[in-house]
Amino acid sequence: MSTIPADLKYTKDHEWVRIDGDVATVGITQFAAEALGDVVYVDLPEAGSTITSGETCGEVESTKSVSDLYAPLTGEVTEVNAAVVDDPSLVNAASFEGGWLFRLRVEDGLGDLLDAEAYRAVVESA
Amino acid sequence: MTRQTALSGIHESLGASFTDFAGWRMPLRYGSELAEHHAVRNAAGLFDLSHMGEIEVVGPQAAALLDHALVGDISAVAVTKAKYTMICQEDGGILDDLIVYRLEDDRYMVVANASNAETVLGALQERAAGFDAEVQDRRDDWALVAIQGPQASAILAELTDADLAGLKYYAILETSVADRPARLARTGYTGEDGFEIFSDPADAPAIWEALSAAGADRGLIPAGLACRDSLRLEAAMPLYGNELSTTTTPYAAGLGRVVKLDKPGGFVGRDALAAVSEQPIQRVRVGLRPEGRRAPRHGYAVVDPASGETVGEVTSGAPSPTLGHPIAMAYVDQALAQPGTRLEVDVRGTHVRAEVVALPFYSRHR
After folding, report:
1. Which of B17, B230, B348 is nearest residue A63 as measured by Cβ atoms?
2. Euclidean distance between CA atoms B244 and B191, whole angstroms
3. Domain ranges (residues) in chain A
4. Do A63 and B34 make contact, defined as CB atoms within 8 angstroms?
5. Which residues of B touch A43 (CB under 8 A)?
6. What CATH number matches the domain at A9-109, 2.40.50.100, 3.40.718.10, 2.60.120.10, 3.40.50.880?
7. A38 vs chain B: nearest CA distance in angstroms?
8. What is the pTM of this model?
9. Residue B321 CA to chain centroid, in angstroms?
10. Domains and CATH numbers, chain B
11. CA separation (Å) from B325 to B207, B292, B294, B322?
12. Contact A37 B29 (CB under 8 A)
């Protein structure tokens, strides 16, 4: 059973979100990383751009396939993880820590993010 | 209904992630497909290929039947040798690519891709009319384990008395492996040295376990279908459904060498292929090396930057673990097919520059 840290929030598209005041850190879950296989490339939104909740904002590419990245919240992207751009394998090796993708300043509330239990239900029915 | 091989329980216990391939539940990878790919290039990998379709053709006119049914000169294959060949439609379109092994004068084993085995069996049975030979469906009688990589021979040597040094590329022996009867072939789909071991399905688990144990301190690991695809792509080996299909001929694929137009008695598809061989080919298979790190994928358009016109289509593409950059094969207009030609690939809306390169991308002999 893949790890689902209790202190994070989640989306049904398998992103995780860590909230710190009005800054959210976003990544994809270990479940998603395992399903994708070895990640070889990440295409992330630019720092300074605004992303809109529910819309695609990038791509995560593995050896075999490409998955869209969806914005879990609305806001301005403040930072992109240069380490994961350089070494996409961090998404597999450290999905919830070193494999974080980008940060944004939340502009429109926390919306419908799932808690760990609700996300576990999503994973179990996948 | 999805089928499983005799090794399915072993794959489960190894923690494999499974995929459905041609109606078979097969291991896609056991851990990291990149690690499995590197293991095959640097040590050895162990593959379950039991989904492949074995068809035996037996009888006094087995050779003649195969000469008629397939595009190659099958009667010229010596006993204990094998040949890569194709079976085509009357119009020259490819039904499957095959390896044919000659076990005895009057006994051949044809190995078809899992996805086409039923079609190949039907075509051979139809084409057998009038020949004193029988086409036998032996798919359920054979399991297939492959060991591929530079350490394959050293590992296998511990489990067989067969003369491995004497078993050349594209040759086959009936022998035993781990004390179980087996047909041992020096063939593979990875671009490395290796062996394909055909056995009774009941013996496959013992053979797999024996190889795993013998290879443990030489770096042998189980390897799934994911790395099988990246390995064959680096070696520029065609995949049916990608580079080969009923709308392609061997000539367009750059494999005209498998067609022997002047076989006495002709063969199914001969006239159509002869006509194709005399015309300039519109689109030919090439290798592409894109800039950047995104891989072109099957179906992506290849564009001529000078005109903006679509001049081809990608058939297979992926990041190359061994080379460290993306690679792709595509069919491209003949005029733009020379190595060095600068093209573009439409990767999900972005035009990525790509150069035509000579195939294969990787060769163990370089």
Report:
1. B230
2. 19
3. 9-109
4. yes
5. 294
6. 2.40.50.100
7. 7
8. 0.92
9. 19
10. 3-50+142-234 (3.30.1360.120), 53-136 (3.30.70.1400), 280-357 (2.40.30.110)
11. 36, 8, 8, 8
12. yes
